[in-house]
Design a protein that fits this description.
- By secondary structure, this protein is mainly alpha-helical.
- Helix content is about 65%, strand content about 5%.
- The chain contains 26 helices and 6 strands.
- The strands form 2 sheets. The chain has a 4-stranded mixed sheet with strand order 3-4-6-5, with helices on one face. A two-stranded antiparallel ribbon has the order 1-2.
- The chain is globular, with a radius of gyration of 27 Å.
Amino acid sequence: MEQQPRKMNAFDWVLIFSTLALAVLFVISGILPNLPLFQATIFGQDIPLFMLSVWAWLFLFWIITNVKRMTGVRFTRSNKIALLVALSVLLLYYAYSLMTRQFIYYWDYVLYYRMQVGISKSFHADGFFNGIIDVIKSVWYNSYSLLNNVFLAAPYTFVPRTPNLFVAISAASILPSLYFLIAMFIKVVERFIQPKHGSLFFIGGMTLAVGFPLIHRALLFGQPDLLGLIFVFLIILLTISYDFSKTDFLRYFLLIVLIIMTCASRRWYMFWLVAYFVCYGVYVILQAILKKRWSDVKRTVLFTLATGLTLAVVFLPMIIVVLRAHYSVSYSAYNVSGFSGELKSQAQYLGIGLLAVILTGTVYGIVKSKTRALTIFALIDVFFTIFIFTRIQNMGYHHTLILVPAYLLLMLICFGGICRLEKRWMLALSSTVVLGFCGVNAAVCATSSAESLPSPFSNVALIPPQRTDIQQIRAVNRWILEHCSKGESAYIIPHGYPYNPDVFRSCDYPDFSVSKHVPYGSAVLGTHYFPDDLLLAKYVLTCEPFCNLSLAEKYNTAFLSEIPQKHFTQVAQFDMGNGYIFYVYERILPMDREEIQFYQDTFAQESKQFPELFSVVWDELIKELK
């Protein structure tokens, strides 16, 4: 049913005036960047950045309220209680997990935290105008944009700047909005299924969503990519019952804005956008053609053109970067098994139990005419998304967030079928089996840190590996700080688990002292440059047994060879207390042509494949010799 035009309300005016105020501040900061206002802070946070973050949440809440009105969703008292209980359970679990863990965030797990610290410093040092420009550039040119950090800046203002509290604030900020939208999604799906027991369906749906481990894995490990899922569910809610039979400019505006926000959140959400809108567009146009509603086709085409033109303008620099890059080559180290292997991985992520629920929902959804189109849409969306994603790389836990809506929909259809049962004993038995298993599955994942869980359960351990070597890592760090002066570095070759350079860099955050002396490291073929610190660092560290990733072991073998070792002497070693021993080598002779030539010969094949990552580095080193 088409929504009627509405009058402006107080929320609309607040958003309009706050947007105008920020726009004025942006212009003034470009002209007069040194005004005291742009240097003011609140609890150490730059006030203009704080204001931008508050505005971002205000804008998001405005979108959510409009989407709720447009979908016509109404929550009963029992629905609200179920939602409140679900959020309470989740937030309590996150708090427990964060308070009991012994974990060092590293690599992608700590990157958003570093970016959060960085965006605060950037806005304070460079001003509001340049800070916003940096955010825009990060969307255009970086794999990780600062959009998520803009949203998290205001909540993060009032807590100590530690990685654990960054995760806590991310959860407290994102989960309420996300699960409110999931609750709306359940109510919309309920209209399609028309269960006989609506209250049970909602409670069961919330149970399935709360206990779905794939939703929580990334955030619990420090990656707030879950924010993008808010935009995804908003897009689904705006399109799931809309067929372009009537013009709705507000809906078009919201969709275009949400598509932009989804792309800006994380670049790989574009795979979901492509798959979803291809499926959606084909469905809408086919329906219109079959019913001979040519005006619907016209509206669909015009919306597509307007959206495409807007995205082309907004993301033109990003489009150029993507077209020039050869991601299938540079990300080849992450493409380990292709499409078929990814299907197997997804089955393992889900586990036999949840996979059975999804398959049951698929069969039931196809059999029932009311849910047939929705079920087929979800299936095609899943397989199409996986197919185009694996043209570049395979999916990690965080990437799998883009499949969560389809998985959840198929589980809801399964449970919706149960809620249509008329015999009470069958209803009680079936719902107990499905929800009982999902609860057990969630509990197993929530209490496990194992790399591999039994096949009936989701292979998604939610407890990070508990470290027993933090004091030993700190001892290595203290040694590095004592022996490295300003400008000197210690290069750590291992690049796997449990040891890699980032483990040492991140161990004492928010103290960044060690990061000034320990480089990020290099190992991934096609992505990382040749580690020139093998020839420039004052110290080089390696370990036994070795922790490998991609080229790391080859770098280690090369370093321990005769020619490089002529330039080093071992000066220290550290027993990490878990079977690993670290050895520290000090450079006693400066690099020379023989050493450079040795690495050139050893990595000739890699340089031939990626000259910009190897030969260019060696050329610069040779220039330094001259």
